[in-house]
Amino acid sequence: MSTVTSITSTATFAGLSAATIAALSTAEWASASTAQIAALTTSQIAALQTADLAVLSTSNVAAFTTTGLRALSTAQLQALNTAQVGALTSTQIAALTTAQVAALETADLVALGSSQLAAFGTAQIAALTTAQIGVIETRDLVALGTAAVRALETADIAALTSAQVAAFTTTQIAALGTAQILALETRDLVALGTAAIRALNTADIVALNTAQVGALTSTQIAALTTAQVAALETADLV
Questions:
Q1: Could you give the CA distance from residue 101 to residue 132 in angstroms, rounded to a whole number?
Q2: What is the pLDDT of residue 13?
Q3: pLDDT per position as a tens digit, 125-184
Q4: Eight-state DSSP code of residue 152
Q5: Taking the C-alpha atoms of 205, 210, 215 and 221 in order, what is their torsion angle to the nearest 10 degrees?
Q6: Residue closest to 151 by CA, chosen among 131, 189, 177, 174
Q7: Which pTM does this prediction carry?
Q8: Rounded to an integer, what distance in angstroms lies between the CA atom of residue 208 and that of residue 171?
């Protein structure tokens, strides 16, 4: 039987049947070249055993084409360790399907850097589970663009920790929709700095419920603009 190391031509490698690909040992896959990994077809990738994926070097994982990466099943994707997931390029991250994004383990999310997280599209952000959202590091969270921030579901907003909410930039705060603002827990709202409070638009102020307004600190209240004060509803002032 042919082995990975005995096949030097990527064209020949790409011509191997799915059955042959599945029959190659983990030791053989561990010695595969980046060119060979890049040459894999989607049917060959579907035939890869999870144990084989787990032994690929980080450079090999980074060599998957975007089409090839999208061919991985959720079980195959979960077979990758944190170092392998952390080696994915921003282009590869952007190519992940929403099902794949939702299947990423929380440890894998932590392994992603700011530029990788920023590569997520709005559909991918919306696909993240509340458990995944809760582990994103603050330095990575601030890398999200305004469109990505607006894509966070209300359940995701509620799942954010106070430290995560406090890390939002004023631009990100201003991008939040009224439903998202209403989803902020009072302890998270209190964590906002004065600049972030002033970044809330008047529609956001109107959207705040009485419990949220009542939780604002005296420092936050003092930071409100005249337009924001005017937008407070009478029930909030009682």
A1: 10
A2: 72
A3: 999 999 999 999 999 999 999 999 999 999 999 999 999 999 999 999 999 999 999 999
A4: S
A5: 40
A6: 177
A7: 0.86
A8: 19
pLDDT at 238: 63
The letter for the amino acid at 162 is: S
Return the structure tokens found at 32: 């595969």
pLDDT (0 to 100) of residue 1:
46
CB-CB contact of 127 with 152 (8 Å): no
Listed in order, strand segments (DSSP E) in 122-176 are: none
- Contact between residue 188 and residue 160 where contact means Cβ atoms under 8 Å apart: yes
CA-nearest of 90, 169, 179, 85 to 132 is 85
How many angstroms separate the CA atoms of 162 and 192, rounded?
8
Hey, what are 40's tokens? 């894999």
pLDDT attached to residue 14: 73
Token couple for 218: 């005296």
Q: What contacts 216, CB < 8 A, 6 or more positions away? A: 189, 190, 197
How far is Cα 182 from Cα 212, in angstroms, rounded to an integer? 8
Q: Name the phi and psi angles at 123, rounded to 5.
A: -65, -35
Ranges under pLDDT 50 in the chain:
1
Q: Tokens 């894509």 label which residue?
A: 151
In the block, tokens 């032994």 appear at 55
Distance CA 63, CA 97 (A): 18
Residue length of the chain: 238
In Å, what is the CA distance from 115 to each residue of 31, 69, 94, 238?
29, 19, 11, 45
